Amino acid sequence: EQPEGRAFAPVNIALCKYWGKREEELNLPQCSSLSISLGPLGTETVVRRADAGATEDRVELNGACVDASTPFARRLCAFLDLFRPDPGARFEVSTKNNVPTAAGLASSASGFAALTLALDRLFGWKLAGPPLSQLARLGSGSAARSVYDGFVLWHAGRDPGGADCLAERLPEVWPELRVGILTVCAEAKETGSTGGMNRTAATSVLFREWAERCRVDLQLLRDAIRAGDFTRFGATAEANAMSMHATMLDARPPLLYWRAETVAALHGVRELRDAGTEVYATIDAGPNVKLLFRERDEAGVRGRFPDMDVIAPFRQPRNDSCSPR
Ligand code: DP6
């Protein structure tokens, strides 16, 4: 039996979104982004060297063997290519997601982060958070943020090789923060993030303004987090998501990730706010909605959205690898 590396990484949800790359091969983003990790939701991965003679990587997802020709296995094996001690080396990877099925939470972020942390253990590199975030980024951009719990800032950087493109955990802790996950539609999204953001960058005229929006929103969010200003935090996160979806709609052909239920949820959020319950919404490249609110408003929000899953990001984190600075 070969030695193994095992690690968990949380899913994350961006409050200031990553939508657009300055370089595709290395997943270098056009703009910096900011997220909150949603431990204990995430991915646990075990990786080991396959016995000599193995001709293919063996990939298991939630206990079932995944065919090497699937997009999932191919993306994973392409990432493993970066880490083979010799060209013939093969790996066995077993990965488990505890994200509620089809919740539309990007499991590629937690997946590549967990695999990176597991490889770090297997090979005994003992890398710090920032270099781990750089490696995870090569699998999927948003994975750079999933190597940490809590609020995470992913710096776009300027270096063409990505030397300064890394994530750091922010020191602020908001124990009262809650994230509600509304699975409004379980269908698989039609256009993945990579293709969607590239199409937007190539064809949307609004996309030119998006970078400046993100620079301003990122500063507002950082200030709000530092000041403990939930209203500014939630309003900025919601507005940033709406701006991202505006660029998506402006792509040619347009990208429409929302379903009728998505719009209904957004109206529900507004109605709650008008009635004095402070709740904000954010949406990624899919139809599902994530709600941001505080512990004190949980009952009020649940009254309108009885089926939501609630995460307390600072109460129940589960990330055994990169502890806060
Ligand atoms: C809308 O990280 O999945 O969720 O780097 O091409 O793998 P690749 O894209 P990915 O994009 C995430 C897009 C988003 C916004 C965000 O998480 O910041």
Automatic annotation (TrEMBL):
Checking InterPro entries in the record gives: GHMP_kinase_C_sf, Mev_decarb, Mev_diP_decarb, MVD-like_N, Mvd1_C, Ribosomal_Su5_D2-typ_SF, Ribsml_uS5_D2-typ_fold_subgr
Q: Which SUPFAM superfamilies match?
A: GHMP Kinase, C-terminal domain, Ribosomal protein S5 domain 2-like
Sequence ranges assigned to domain Mvd1 C-terminal in this UniProt record: 181-299
Phylogenetic lineage:
Bacteria, Pseudomonadati, Kiritimatiellota, Kiritimatiellia, Kiritimatiellales
Q: Which GO terms describe its cellular component?
A: cytosol
Alphabetic keyword roster: ATP-binding, Lipid biosynthesis, Lipid metabolism, Lyase, Nucleotide-binding
Q: Name one Pfam family in it.
A: MVD-like_N
Q: What is its EC number?
A: 4.1.1.33
The coiled-coil segments of this chain are: none
Give the domain of life. Answer: Bacteria
Quote the Gene3D superfamilies the UniProt record gives.
3.30.230.10, GHMP kinase, C-terminal domain
Alphabetized GO MF terms: ATP binding; diphosphomevalonate decarboxylase activity
User: What's this protein's family per the entry?
Assistant: Belongs to the diphosphomevalonate decarboxylase family.
Organism per entry: Kiritimatiella glycovorans
Write down the top EC class of this protein: lyase
- From the Swiss-Prot or TrEMBL record, give the protein name: diphosphomevalonate decarboxylase
**Single Gene Ontology BP annotation:** isopentenyl diphosphate biosynthetic process, mevalonate pathway
Q: Which residues form the Diphosphomevalonate decarboxylase-like N-terminal domain?
A: 9-167
